[in-house]
Amino acid sequence: xxxxxxxxxxxxxxxxAVLKPQVxxxxxxxxxxxxxxxxxxxxxVRPSDTPFVKEYIKGKDVKLTSVVGFPHGTTLTSAKLxxxxxxxxxxxxxxxxxLNIAQLKSGNYEAVYADIxxxxxxxxxxxxxxxxxxxxxxxxxxxxxxxCEICIKAGVDYVKTSTGFGSGGATIHALKIMRANTxxxxxxxxxxxxxxxxxxxxxxxxxxxxxxxxxxxxxxxKAKKIERSNPESLFYETDTENINELGDGY
Length: 250
Fold this sequence. Notes:
Elements: E1 2-4, H1 7-13, E2 14-18, H2 25-37, E3 42-45, H3 50-56, E4 63-68, H4 77-90, E5 94-98, H5 101-105, H6 109-125, E6 129-133, H7 141-154, E7 158-160, H8 172-180, E8 187-191, H9 197-205, E9 210-213, H10 216-229, E10 235-237
Parallel strand pairs: 2-3, 2-9, 3-4, 4-5, 5-6, 6-7, 7-8, 8-9
Antiparallel strand pairs: 1-10
Helix pairs in contact: 1-10, 4-6, 6-7
């Protein structure tokens, strides 16, 4: 399959993930410079980093994103709401919340819905964008479909494959299920193990509109190289048949 897309467009699809617990402030600053240089759509950082990052990227063409209930989704809804409220007050323009994986797998769908709906309503009241992380490596196909149904009912903006901290990352299989079971008005975000241009294009080819990755430099540089070698063509070949498991982590 061929996709028509530019290196700049790919960069803008990226939520540049800086979520590893051991990243120091010095390392964070260097990574933010990479995000700014390569034109990411957002930087997705740890909640405690948001005040610093908000100031650091001021005036830059990059949005601030953070996470809620990360990485397991099992915190109380009241805690998620408090975290959401503070992240919005700091200035996050988008938030990625983890659904309660244990409750979903236990069949407590009303509890999962109530949790997502409460957080999503708070985000939407602020006019910001919401994403819900499934952690698909732990879910059956039927559970992924059920999670999509719950998110549709709750009115979220995006459904997302992974935290990057589970036992596996995004797969083409999971992305296809998510895209097939959500309306076109809802976005699908692929995250977890997307480290190459081929991985990124494979995810995009099955409907991903956002990419969660920390490998933007490698991805965009290869796209630029292709553009330089053939400036008349913006068509990149991708093969989803040979890329199924995209790996784990960011």
